Amino acid sequence: MRKEEFVHLCRNWPVQGGYSLAGAVVPLVRTYLFGNHRRKLPVIWLEMNDSGDNNISFLNATSPYVGQVFTYMIDLLYSNPFMAAQGPDALQLLTNAAREYSGKFTLVVEGAVPTKADGLYTVIARTPERPLTAWEILRWLGPLAEYVLAVGTCASFGGPSAARPNLTGSRPIQDVLQRPVIRVSGCPVNSDWFVGTLAHLILYGMPEVDDQGRPTLFYRDTVHRHCQRRSYFGQKVFAEKLGDKECMYSVGCMGPATLADCPYRQWVDHVSWPVKANTPCIGCTNRDFPDGSTPFYQSLAQKRPKEGGRS
Ligand code: SF4
Asked: What Gene3D superfamilies does the record tag this protein with (predicted)?
C-alpha cells in the first residue's frame, strides 16, 4: 500500500464504518513483514509518572485484540506495565534488550519524568546498591533508541503529572532527551492513535508531525470541526448547564482549541466520546493540559480570552 493510501486509511477508517484501527493495520503490517522478511518492531516500553490510563486505553484495542498487536506487530522486549518478570530478572531483561537492540529499538514512554529529589518519585528498578529512577533510565535508553514515542499527554507535554504545583518536578520526556520525540498525546491516548503510529513506523518510518510533534495522521483538525453539536454552535445555541443537548462552549468545552479526531473516531470501539457523553471536551491532547483548560466549566473565552470562539 502506498503511504498516501495508508494515511487515508488511518484518517477515514472510522467514517467508513471500521471499528478499531488495529483491525485494518495489523493484517497490513503482518503481510508487509512476512513478504519482506522483516522482523517485528522491537519495543522497550517504560511507564513513568502517570495514572496508567494509557496502557489501559491501549488494552481496549479490539477486533483484533491487543494480543495480536503484540503477536504480529511489535516485539515487546521489556515493559514494566505488562511483563510478568520482576526484580533482578526484569532488570536483566532490560539490560540485555538495550545491549542487543541498541540503535534499533523503539522506546515507548508513558508518563512524565519526575526530576525533583533526584527523580526518586518514580523508581523503575532497584539494584543492591541503589534505586534506578525513571529519570536515569530514560537518559540511558533515550540516546540508544531508533525512535522515541511519547504515549499520552504526561509523556508528551507533562500533562496532569506536571500540573500546578508540580510537586515532583515532572517534565515531558523531550525536555530530558533533547532529541526528536513523536508525541501521541491524549489523556488517555486513543488506542487507534497509538497503533496507527506504530504501524506507520514499521511500514514507512517516521510519520509527519505537527509543530507540537504530534502525528498529523490523527491531530490535524480541531475537535470542534467535526463535532455533532457544531450546528448549535453555528446558530449560537448554547447549553445552560451540563446535560443540556446544545453546544457546550458555554460550559467550558475546549473543542475549538484542541486538535484530535475524537468526534468520529470515538473511544472503546466507537462507543462514545466526551461530548456525546454530555461532558465538554477538556482539551486533553494540548500542550498546556490541564492547567490551560481550567477552570474546566468556564467558557473558553473566559479562560483563554485570545482564543475564545476560534474554530
Ligand atoms: S464548542 Fe464543543 S460542544 Fe460546541 S460544537 Fe465545538 S466541540 Fe462541539
From this structure: Cytochrome-c3 hydrogenase, C-terminal domain, NADH:ubiquinone oxidoreductase-like, 20kDa subunit
